[in-house]
Amino acid sequence: MSSRLIYGYLIGALLLALLYFLAIPFYEKKIPTSLVKDVQKQLDTKGHIWAKASASGRDITLNGKAPTPRDFEDALTLTKGVSGVRSVENNLIHTLVRPYYLTAEWEDKQLTIKGYLPDEESLSRITKVFESQYPKGRVNHQLAVAKGAPEGWADLTLTALENTSPIDLVSLDLIGQHIDLSAKSTHSADINRLMSALRPFEKKGFTLKSNLVATDQTTQRCQTRFNKLLLHTQISFNTGKATINKESIPLLRKLGEIGLLCSEVSITIAGYTDNKGRPKKNLSLSQDRADTIARWLSNAGMDEKLLNPVGYGASDPIADNSTEKGRAKNRRIEFIVQEK
Predict the structure, then answer these.
(1) How many Cα atoms sit within 13 Å of 156 on the Cβ side?
(2) Residues 190 and 255 both lie in one domain
(3) Are 165 and 105 in contact (CB under 8 A)?
(4) 185 and 175 in contact (C-beta within 8 Å)?
(5) Domain boundary among 43, 63, 93
(6) Nearest-CA neighbor of 101 among 153, 171, 160?
(7) What number of other Cβ atoms are within 10 A of residue 285's Cβ?
(8) Where are the bilayer-spanning segments (predicted)?
(9) Which of 68, 153, 305, 313 has its CA 20 to 30 A from that of 162?
């Protein structure tokens, strides 16, 4: 290779290097300007004209006061997603939320929750509860970070969610310092656990209003009421028929009133006869009488789906069938309360 050619390569390389170093300041100024324009255009297009972007190289700084917590999150997420942005310094100002609220619905193993939390740490803690205590893919949350939370808000939310999943149905409304809780469970222990966890927050200024149903307690309470009514008085029928005697109508009305208060349980209406007559006929008669009582209660307003009439004939006597007094006791209707 000739010396002239070598000198030509060297001169070309030097010219390229010189061009590179001369261009660096130009592009250092051009990159932030171009990037800011891209970011600001994206923000303005989405309606976030309140947010203003500036840049140092590929690092963006956002300033402005968000009109809503959702706008705050959207502007931040949008900026981070712009091509070329390396980092985002968040100088946005949160909007003060009034009233501060959070609602949660837990039903059919599905949690729907929306509202506000005071900071990103609180949101992270709640997310971990979702992951550890609720079925995967069964949490729909619309939570945003915003200022204005009462003291103890994050701990209250966390405590409520940690004790909700074992319960069948929960509706929770938090508004300011007021807690409105409705819950239904087959086990009173689960509801008691939730209430015990929430009670300490009353000492921190929160008020608690609750509407709670535990079907195991409801079953026992309803059974006791039916038993008390039927302890000394029985529903009577015309002999050999399923026609209710008029004297039993006041008793039926009282039984119906109890039934209306026991809409969370199912009730078996069990019909029995004495041992006189053919067993097959007695079985049919006891079924007809149970059906008659179920129809009467349904017409009185009870949900017929909760009533299960069953005839047992002369089986399971509670008294001696050899005496008239004993046979009168065995001709009876019983109400057996069960969980749905």
Answers:
(1) 33
(2) no
(3) no
(4) no
(5) 93
(6) 153
(7) 22
(8) 6-27
(9) 68
Q: What is the pTM of this model?
A: 0.55
Q: Please tell me the total number of residues recorded for the chain in this structure.
A: 340
Same domain, 11 and 43: yes
CATH number at residue 301: 3.30.1330.60
Backbone angles phi, psi at 300, to 5 degrees: -85, -5
What lies within 8 Å, CB to CB, of 60 at 6+ separation is: 35, 36, 39, 53, 54, 79, 82, 85, 87, 88, 89
Angle at 315 between CA 309 and CA 318, to 5 degrees: 100
Instruction: Show which of 55, 70, 93 is a domain's final residue.
Output: 93
Closest CA to 237 of 297, 198, 288: 288
- The answer for residues whose C-beta is within 8 angstroms of residue 336's C-beta and 6 or more apart is 223, 267, 268, 270
225 in a domain, yes or no? no
The number of domains in the chain is: 3
Structure tokens at 164: 């909700």
For residues 183 and 260, membership in a common domain is answered with no
- CATH number for 199: 3.40.1520.20
Q: Which of these, 252, 318, 247, 334, lies nearest to 286 by C-alpha position?
A: 334
Residue 202 domain flag: yes
Between strands 207-214 and 178-185, the pairing is parallel
Q: Is residue 220 part of a domain?
A: no
How do residues 59-114 score in pLDDT, each as one tens digit? 989 998 887 777 888 888 999 998 888 899 988 887 777 889 999 999 999 999 99
241 and 291 share one domain: yes
To 10 degrees, what angle do helices 153-162 and 188-198 make? 170
Q: Spell out the residues 6+ positions from residue 202 whose beta carbon is closer than 8 angstroms to its own.
A: 208
pLDDT, one tens digit per residue, over 143-185 is 988 888 999 999 999 999 999 999 999 999 999 999 999 999 9
CA atoms of 218 and 149, how far apart (whole Å): 37
